Amino acid sequence: MAGGAFVDTSGVRNYEGKVTAFVLITCFVAAMGGLLFGYDLGITGGVTSMDEFLIKFFPSVYKKMKDENHETNQYCKFDDQLLTLFTSSLYLAALIASFFAATSTRVWGRKASMFLGGFFFLIGALLNGLALNIEMLIIGRLLLGFGVGFCNQSVPVYLSEMAPANIRGALNIGFQMMITIGILAANLINYSTSKLKNGWRISLGVGAVPALVLCIGVICLEETPNSLIERGDHEKAKSMLKKIRGTKNVDEEFQDLVDASEEASKVDHPWKNISQPEYRPQLTFCSCIPFFQQLTGINVIMFYAPVLFKILGFGDDASLMSAVISGGVNVVATLVSVFTVDKFGRRILFLEGGTQMFICQVIIGIMIAAKFGLTGQGSFSKGEADVLLFFICAYVAAFAWSWGPLGWLVPSEICALEVRPAGQAINVAVNMFFTFIIAQVFLTMLCHLKFGLFFFFAGFVVIMTVFIGLLLPETKNVPIEEMNRVWKSHWFWTRFVPDQVVVGGNNKKVSP
């Protein structure tokens, strides 16, 4: 069994039901939470490359950037810890918020957490757009971070619980799809406002619009059957299950949800429970996948695309337009994942994406090394810049149909109900922690590692691709309540999962 690529899921039961318009509309509205995250990812790099913004808040960086005779190496012109704190502070706040969001998602429901996320983001965006000093700017960023933390905790769980197993991947990737649309929208807005007086205020303030839409939309959403059962409203939960499955014959699935909830309610300490040996696969992937997702180096592009392109010799307009192009590729490539993830599975997308990212990063590193060397002095001709942009876009595309959406999908679908809030909180916390680290140290790393930074991330891509190839079983079309069968059938994880495991809430014998 090479690398555990094959897992027997023949014993997994298929529930009756169809894909209803109600589910599609509900999941679309919920996925708006990803739009907030994506908008912030895309807006930051463009704003930090705008002259007026730098003059007002970071004058030393502006002076260093404009002084062509300055002794600073080209790689180091944006290396400023306060500037990177503007970007990274959001993710530190999101890290803290994710732990509070785990409790609110379980106790108050998925809807409440999504609403809180939208509300925090709304206030933060308004504060940033109206900022008069650096303190106001950072406070706004922290509130944005609380919004991102609550949405990233609750939205993937909501989508996984509402979606039928056979299209769970596609609907859950709606969250990542919205992230990519948010990034593209931010890049387009930055390009449009870069020439306007105080255009940065528009760029930062417009984030309030999707936040307001999310808050209004969430009020109109229905709670998931899992959450309703978890909070004791069985009658409404069964009615909701019939509505989202489009059939009255939901008794078997409903009973499995009830059994799973009753078993989960016996767990007094979900954080302690997820550390037990039988949950070792869930803990491993909820920790390692978000860690590796950030070590792909994608946020180097997403956070700092205009800054990076400017460092590499693109003009002001060209750097912003290049960010728009890579953002467009991001959206289109994510659509590839939407239409293939439930057909071909998670593993093949992970493995192909990792291979493509590695090749592109090595080529990008070689091109920058050949042109800039260690001194950072040099620039690309138009033809060379086009080739560089092509490989950056190919790299973005590979991430967008693999580690981008699957980094949120897989952790949200592999956890049993009794550890699901804790597992998703770990996923978000690890993701936000390493997003914070990368955002805070990238410009310093670029200054010191220079072109070697791309080889640094390429090395991690090799490690994470081997990790997936050896340890991740295929989870497509498997109901969440039946996921333990997958672990029991895997060559490595079978040693941790006992023969008597919870399947649909009942202790049933699982055949290896």
UniProtKB/TrEMBL annotation:
Location within or outside the cell: Membrane
Gene3D superfamilies: MFS general substrate transporter like domains
GO molecular function: monosaccharide transmembrane transporter activity; symporter activity
Pfam families in UniProt: Sugar_tr
The entry's keywords: Membrane, Sugar transport, Symport, Transmembrane, Transmembrane helix, Transport
Membrane topology: Multi-pass membrane protein
Keyword Transmembrane: yes
InterPro entries to which the protein is assigned, alphabetical: MFS_dom, MFS_STP/MST-like_plant, MFS_sugar_transport-like, MFS_trans_sf, STP/PLT_plant, Sugar/inositol_transpt, Sugar_transporter_CS
TM segment ranges: 19-39, 82-102, 114-132, 138-159, 171-190, 202-221, 283-307, 319-341, 348-368, 388-410, 422-445, 451-472
Major localisation: membrane
Domain of life: Eukaryota
A Gene Ontology cellular-component term: membrane
Domain Major facilitator superfamily (MFS) profile: 26-476
Family: Belongs to the major facilitator superfamily. Sugar transporter (TC 2.A.1.1) family.
Annotated protein name in UniProt: Major facilitator superfamily (MFS) profile domain-containing protein
